[in-house]
């Protein structure tokens, strides 16, 4: 096969209907992350009783039309979601290593259903906070385990492309909730927005019964024959999976084979018992951070994840309607729907780019664009230039979607060995959730302290400059490389000598 085979031909050959189903079902987890992240953006004024609407636009008189909150209280309700996400991200690494990717994904759906139900029927701030905390637990875990599962089941030549589906799903979640918010931000109809997430969680829980465990995880946990059987089903019966199986570097003994013959006809969701020896080989979060062989990768992933949030994307996702209303009083909500749609389109169109021009190049171009647009947005809001503010918002989001949105989620799988992927991903996502909390909690406070008018975006521009410079120096390119030794080269060897 030619090295430069057109993408559409390789996709047609490598992508089966079964893999498409797995991709659709598993990425409902990241969808929930985007959905919950933005669900309070459009209806903020209605939820907090700042905007009163007609009583006939309501679901039920038994539930209050709004929950009175000031700016600080609303910031707490918004940001506590990230606390749940942080806890979920930290716990998911060991969970998906020891108990499997599939079981961890099933657990996230319980959080989606329960958290959304509590939010929907919330009658006060503590109840609202508790619901968002529970939903955050599932979202934090999903953002860790789903990219790992996709990387371990996607066709090898299109890992970058399918890895971008994590971010595409997040963007779709944001778009759907912004659309619902545009039409349902009145009375207590905003509760429908919160309830929809629970329904989606229930659908995913049922659909996961037809999803198998990751073949790579099965192989590492001494079920190589069963793993090969699952991989063959994902790739198609005529596909040659020998190269992928060989890359696992795991040999099946005769005892393994006789033990696993009964598993070959098991249903997709069957789950072998965890192997204590394999579990012991897994690297924990603390070990990954302190071991000189893994520390450079952890620092790289953490830096990129911090940058993803501290360049300001969630200020647009969470607070853009209230931010732009003073400048665009009649079109702010519609502009944000357009921004969310643009985010989906650009992320999808640019998904193959990381496989073509490289992961690091995409990230650096993305940071540069966001930094420039932060300055433009600040100037547009400061001097009341509507067209500049609108264009800057659109290009800001497009720049994020180009690289800093999708690429960070695939880096952990390419910077460390399989034994440390879960821990490294957890470290990175923990950093991501901490940064998300900082933005969600303090953006409105800092913006108000600076007198509003978008001055806070000068701070985001500064973060882009500093963090972008560090990434340019520290983070290696992973495109076309296999194994952490090849990715890190001499730096890896030097770290081992510490």
Order of helices and strands: HHHHHHHHHHHHHHHHHHHHHHHHHH
Q: How many strand units? A: 0
Radius of gyration: 23 Å
Which class best fits the helix and strand makeup? mainly alpha
Helix content: over 70%
Regions with little confidence, pLDDT below 50 for 5+ residues: 253-265, 491-498
Alpha-carbon distance between the two ends:
43 Å
Number of helices: 26
User: Average pLDDT, to the nearest integer?
Assistant: 85
Shape: globular
Main β-sheet: number of strands, strand sense, barrel status?
none
Strand percentage:
under 5%
Explain this structure to me?
With 498 residues, the chain is mainly alpha-helical. Helix content is 72%, strand content 0%. It contains 26 helices and no strands. The protein has helices spanning 7-14, 17-26, 28-38, 44-47, 71-98, 101-120, 125-153, 159-163, 165-184, 190-207, 215-220, 224-235, 242-247, 254-260, 276-281, 285-290, 295-310, 313-325, 332-350, 353-356, 359-382, 386-404, 408-415, 421-449, 456-474, 484-496. Helix 5 runs parallel beside helix 7 (125-153) and helix 17 runs parallel beside helix 24 (421-449). The chain is globular, with a radius of gyration of 23 Å.
């Amino acid at each position: 096969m030619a090295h430069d085979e057109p993408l559409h031909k390789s996709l047609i050959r490598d992508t089966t209907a079964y893999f498409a189903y797995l991709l659709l079902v598993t990425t409902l987890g990241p969808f929930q992350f985007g959905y919950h992240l933005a669900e309070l953006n459009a209806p903020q004024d209605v939820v907090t009783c700042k905007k009163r609407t007609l009583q006939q636009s309501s679901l039920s008189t038994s539930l209050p039309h709004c929950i009175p909150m000031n700016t600080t209280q609303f910031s707490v309700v918004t940001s506590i979601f990230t606390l749940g996400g942080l806890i979920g991200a930290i716990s998911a690494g060991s969970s998906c290593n020891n108990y499997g990717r599939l079981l961890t994904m099933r657990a996230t759906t319980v959080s989606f259903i329960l958290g959304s139900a509590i939010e929907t029927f919330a009658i006060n701030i503590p109840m609202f906070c508790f619901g968002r905390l529970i939903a955050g637990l599932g979202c934090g875990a999903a953002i860790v385990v789903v990219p790992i599962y996709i990387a371990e089941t996607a066709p090898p030549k299109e890992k970058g492309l399918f890895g971008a589906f994590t971010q595409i799903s997040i963007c779709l979640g944001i778009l759907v909730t912004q659309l619902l918010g545009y039409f349902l931000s009145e009375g207590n109809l905003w509760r429908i927005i919160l309830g929809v997430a629970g329904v989606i969680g229930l659908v995913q829980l049922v659909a996961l019964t037809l999803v198998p465990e990751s073949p790579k995880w099965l192989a590492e946990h001494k079920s190589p024959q069963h793993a090969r059987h699952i991989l063959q089903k994902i790739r198609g019966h005529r596909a040659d999976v020998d190269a992928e199986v060989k890359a696992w570097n795991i040999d099946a003994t005769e005892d393994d084979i006789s033990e696993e013959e009964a598993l070959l006809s098991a249903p997709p969701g069957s789950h072998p018992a965890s192997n204590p020896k394999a579990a012991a080989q897994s690297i924990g979060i603390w070990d990954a951070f302190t071991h000189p062989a893994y520390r450079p990768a952890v620092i790289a992933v953490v830096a990129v994840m911090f940058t993803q949030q501290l360049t300001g994307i969630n200020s647009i996702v969470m607070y853009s309607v209230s931010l732009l209303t003073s400048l665009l009083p009649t079109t702010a909500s519609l502009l944000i729907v357009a921004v969310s749609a643009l985010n989906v389109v650009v992320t999808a169109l640019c998904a193959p780019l990381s496989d073509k021009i490289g992961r690091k190049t995409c990230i650096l171009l993305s940071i540069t664009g966001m930094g420039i647009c932060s300055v433009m947005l600040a100037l547009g809001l400061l001097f009341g230039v509507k067209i500049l503010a609108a264009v800057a918002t659109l290009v800001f989001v497009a720049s994020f979607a180009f690289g800093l949105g999708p690429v960070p989620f695939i880096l952990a799988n390419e910077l460390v060995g399989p034994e440390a992927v879960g821990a490294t991903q957890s470290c990175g996502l923990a950093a991501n959730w901490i940064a998300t909390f900082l933005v969600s909690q303090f953006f409105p406070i800092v913006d108000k302290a600076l007198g509003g008018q978008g001055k806070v975006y000068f701070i985001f521009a500064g973060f882009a400059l500093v963090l972008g410079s560090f990434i340019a120096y520290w983070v290696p390119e992973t495109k076309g490389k296999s194994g952490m030794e090849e990715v890190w080269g001499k730096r890896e060897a030097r770290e081992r000598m510490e």
